[in-house]
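Aim 2 progress update. The chain analyzed this quarter is reproduced below.
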Amino acid sequence: MSNSDGGGGCSASLVASSFRRSMFLAVVGGEIASVVGVSLAYVYGVAAGGSIVVAAIAVYASVFVLRSGAEKKSKIYSVFRTEERKEVEGVSADGGER
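Predicted structure tokens:
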């Protein structure tokens, strides 16, 4: 069993919409960090604890970057959608009069 307190738990709180989903994502994130960390420790001959922490940080950073990128993308799209819908009385979308 992994400790999902590090990268998994914090990462889950960034994207989860409910407590149940947050717990599920925390376990998944913790397991991913644990497996990747132990694998890196085996391959490179380093301490397992430190490599698990590095993997947890990588999981958190990945989720943070993907989430902030998705938020920026959705904000950009929402700006374009709202500007397209705005109409001024007597003026059409191409700038000419009706």
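Residues 48-85 form the longest helix (38 residues). Residues 20 and 26 are 10 Å apart (CA to CA). These observations will guide the mutagenesis experiments scheduled for the next reporting period.
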